[in-house]
Amino acid sequence: MEGCLSSAPFTRVARSPARAVTAAPFFQPDAGSARRHTGGTPAGIRRPSAGRPARAPGLSTANTALENRGLQDSHAGSPVSPPYDGSMSDRGFDARSNLRPLRLRAMMTQEELAAKAGVGTRTVRDIESGRVRPQPKTLRLLVKALGLGDQDRTLLTDAVGGEAAVPRELPRELASFAGRERHLAAVLDAVDRGATVVAVHGMAGVGKTTLAVQAAHALAPRYPGGQLFVDLHGFTHADGPRPSMESVLARILRSLNVDEPDLPSDVDELAALYRSALAGRRVLLVLDNAAEAEQVEALLPGTADGLTLATSRHDLASVPDAVPVPLEPPPMPEAVAMVNAAVAGRATDAEAAAIAERCGRLPLAMSLATARLRSRPLWRVKDLLERLTDEDRLLDELGTGHRGVAAALRASYRELDAPHRRLLRRFSLVPGDDVDAYAAAALCGVDRDRASAMLESLVNVHLAETRSSGRYRLHDLVRLFASQLAAAEEDPSELDEAFGRLLDVYVHFAYQAASRAVSPYQRIFAEELKAHDLGLPGFADQDDAVSWFRAERENLAAVIVAAVRAERLESAWHLASAFSAFRWYDGDTEHQLAINRTALEMARRLGDELKQAHSLGDRGRHFSVAGRSAEAIDYLSWAAALSRKLGDVAAATWALRNLGILYRQSGRFSEALGVYRSALEMAEAASDVTAMLHIRSNMVVPLLRLGRLDEAERRLEESKGLLGPGDEYNASRIENFRGIFAREKGDPAAALSIHTDCLERCRRNGFREGFTPVLIELGEDLLRLGRAPEAVAYLEQALEHAEDMSYRSLERSARNGLGRVLTASGRPEEAIGYHEQAAALAESQQDAYELACAHHGLADAHRLRGDLAAARTHLRKAAAGYAECGVPEAEAIEGRLRGAP
Hints:
The strands form two sheets. The protein has a five-stranded parallel beta sheet with strand order 2-3-4-1-5, with helices on both faces. A two-stranded antiparallel ribbon has the order 6-7. Helix content is 61%, strand content 4%. The chain has five domains: 208 residues, Serine Threonine Protein Phosphatase 5, Tetratricopeptide repeat (Alpha Horseshoe); 86 residues, Orthogonal Bundle (434 Repressor (Amino-terminal Domain)); 146 residues, 3-Layer(aba) Sandwich (Rossmann fold), CATH 3.40.50; 83 residues; 142 residues, Tetratricopeptide repeat domain (Serine Threonine Protein Phosphatase 5, Tetratricopeptide repeat, Alpha Horseshoe), CATH 1.25.40.10. The protein is mainly alpha-helical.
């Protein structure tokens, strides 16, 4: 991936303990715009805190039951904000209600605030509308962009300055909850007696989730640490995404404000981090739809501070310390209470009993039936009962216990018109858990607006449900019902066509998003995007594209599996290939590699060697992200050789460029130059100006490492001459290098000015990937100017960005850079921590150069502490490492060793 691999940090031959670090994989701003400075800490950059340590890798009866326990519903309402009068004195507002007046006071539009803060416009809009709860990091960015003083910043940053935002994930509670007062009381009594795990089990559709959610809302005030709701999909449809334990743990940790880069890939490490995050916190955790007791047990917190409510179709009595609450179809009095609550007095007790009887007293079936009665004011109860007669044979394979569901579903289905019936049937074709309106439109061959209205109609009659705006799903029993209807009533060829259209929509949006994921991919996916464009809207910006991927990630994986099973090999390959573009945003390298393995298999089955070459290159890039350089080099070499054999010069050149980057990131600078020269010859022969530009600019870093400054500057000028009109992305890269040359020629003040403008250029154009290297350069400029304490803030931000995007090479460079500036600031103990972390990363990821830099920095830090023996040991290791890389620093270090006592 060019934007993350295009160039590496540069360190000149050491002339003093303060040495240079430069980089160029790219990222998003995290502190707004840095501006030209004449002194002090640059605008938009956070000052480090003193002594910061090194970073470590319904009904009255129900209400009476609640009141008897002294519980209050904390969700019954919300305060209404008064009109903004310009004073901002009311400290009772939250971030959502305060952001708009603060923005207006700053005379900024949503777009201007988003641009200045380095976030998406949608993010600002969603926070102001209350659709999302802002993360602490986002609040920090907004505070900086608004230029808030100490008094006003607390309106937005209480969570940032103190505890993190508390998750409130419970689904909506039912005002008409009835008929389960005994079971609700059982749950509450168990908690009163000290239970920390309550397990509700029963058949499908019996109301387990409803009971758990109602109890959770009642208990929420007791658990101020937050309320989490996790659907474990234990009984989902065959192709649906039953999440792995890794993904469940990661999802909960994200809700607990653990940043993505801090999430380990190993499940045991994730579990340990999960238990640590919950330790000492009174958190209520709802684990819905568990497949088995073991799944629940694995997610129990390590301490007894919180409460876990679990639901399953299986008995969870084997879960340690669990209090079981078995749930059966309610007895007739409770079922009658449920029906009466739902129809609001339209039925007598006898009529309500008849409805309950014909629905098998199953809450799901009764809910569906009564919803239809509510939606038809002219109906008599008799009309509904007639429609529930003789409707209990469709789901026979589920057993007699589910016959009532069949009656309710069949009766609801018959009330739909033909288009809505078609949509319900074809909904069963969806491989993933949910869909948006575009996918539904593809299934039925209608436009998006029509599909959206139809989906809402299905929600209104309880045949579909929505858990977030614009996303729709079917209960698993409804999905089974719909699947049987599709098999019985649809022409197989029409179903196949509908499934094909669904795949086409996913391919369209996958390529649209991939082309936005990272700037260089716009060219790579341009041809595929054009070939698969359905004329549907694209994405506004990079944030929009990444948000789509994160919302659809599990669905995309399920769609790929379904495409393979349906022998839709082309579609499977395209989806898997587009999936790969998001490797930097995924954080699950093993999952990415598994998707890529599918792409390779599809290419081989298709007999398409061009696709094979592309997928081999993707695999190499996945290994690169994982820090597995040797495997990455192998796969990129195979991709380059196969592409060259096939005459695909552009693909071969692309693979060689990435291979050169890997050599450079491993400290093999001469080999990197050799690969770049081969790639350049191919690009020149093909008159590929864009490739020529990238290759020449990529040659700058290894040339600088090897001390060939004049040749490096010549290559940069050649690159500048190849810039096309409006190519802001590459222009910003070249400007970054131009600042380096100014510094190396003895003018760090000019370098600071150039890099400050370059940072603003990246921010203005939305080049998120450009921020990390420029921040590193700004830190180095300040170090050279003798302003090391100010440099710390830049390098801390660079490290945060590198971690966010899994830029492993830049993370190593930023850690070493932080170590150097901390040493120069007289803080050697902290410096040692950063250098040791950089050394461990470099050694594990086979980066000889950054390993040598880490030892060099450790030598300087230990010398400042007065430990000359340790300093000499690390200096010898640095000299050996530099010599292995063939860089001039080796000779300079040897000189120091000869002169050392």
